[in-house]
Amino acid sequence: MNVRQMFCSFSSTSIMLISLMVAPPSIASDSNEITVDANAQPFARPVKVIQLDIGKGFRERLLPGEVRAADKASLSFRVAGQIADIYVRPGDHVKAGDLLAKLDSDLYQQQYEVAKAQYELAKVLFERSSSLVEQGVVSRNDFDQSKSDFTIARAALDKAETDLAYTQLKAPYDGMISKRDRKQFEFVQAQESIMGIRTESFIDISFQLPEQFIGAIQANRVNEGPVENIDVKFDSRDAWYKARLKELSTVADTSTGSYTIILTLKMPTELNVLPGMAASVRVKLPYRGASSNPVIAAGARVEENGQTYVFRWLPEQLKVEKVAVTLNDNQLESGLEDGDWLVVAGASELTDGESTVRWVKERGL
User: 90-129, pLDDT tens digit by residue?
Assistant: First the structure.
């Protein structure tokens, strides 16, 4: 093979290698083919939204709530000792005064017997000194000392008797045992939780109410009857119940800006409602008139061909919808309904149908 043939052969081989190195991925084998998920969600833009409060007859808000025990307590012994017996289990019904548990009382019984003996001796000496001091047989100082010893002995006996009684744990009221923290034969310190108890006749419902609705129920703070514009429903039954206003927080939650409301009602006999269960609270608000309709800020408006548009956030679909609205001096007249979520800033940067999430202000920012 001459030099010219060798050069041609080398050039052909080099061109083939370079072609394979720069070949596009489309000619790769099926096992290494790169694909793109057509169902992949685009980046979701965070948007700042508010829920509109528009006066049209009765306005309703459905808010999430949580069931709480109306009255609950953590029960403990007031003295330390070893648990001798526990007579109840979680879920047991008890009456006020029922014996729930007791400690080994041998040590406290001995202390009581010693205190009782010292008290009886001090009592005899004091009575003897009382009869002799008038005769001058006993000095006034000795009499005062015997009186002081008698008073101290009586106080020591009262304490020993009280400590002995504290070795028994009794139910403070009618209710149900909600939990048990200790077991038989364990040693516990004074004030250490042994079990919990809660009432069954009433239940509480806690929920958060936005600030614009506080005035509608604030008048019920002194009302002992049911709150007429608030109903409660539990997930286990499709029925609404009236409740009384129990507590109304006057300090807003730092993360949500809402106020905590606690309602109370009698335990429904047909339901098994326990603390921690979910509930729904329906708040009805009276008509306020169009003059109270919200003002649409400049950041929420988009002007196109003489028409004003805003973006409505759809929480179930996590996207925004472009909506035409009618304004009167920047105040909403039509186009949106009560309860709609309005994007209040950055509307000019959004597009109809764009994926979005609600922006929530983080604590401390």
Answer: 999 999 999 999 999 999 999 999 999 999 999 999 988 8
What predicted TM-score, i.e. pTM, was given to this entire model? 0.54
Cα radius of gyration (the chain): 39
Q: Which 3 state secondary structure label does DSSP give 122?
A: helix
What the block records as the tokens of 34 is 């790169």
- Please, what sign has the CA dihedral across residues 325, 329, 333, 338? positive
d(C-alpha 85, C-alpha 302), whole Å: 74
pLDDT digits (tens, 9 = 90+) for 123-173: 999 988 888 877 777 788 888 899 999 999 999 999 999 999 999 999 999
Between strands 307-314 and 341-343, the pairing is: antiparallel
> Is 182:194 a contact under the CB 8 Å cutoff?
yes
By C-alpha distance, which of 255, 253, 211 is closest to 361? 255
Task: Tell me the C-alpha distance between 324 and 307, whole Å.
Answer: 7
Q: How many residues in total does the chain contain?
A: 365
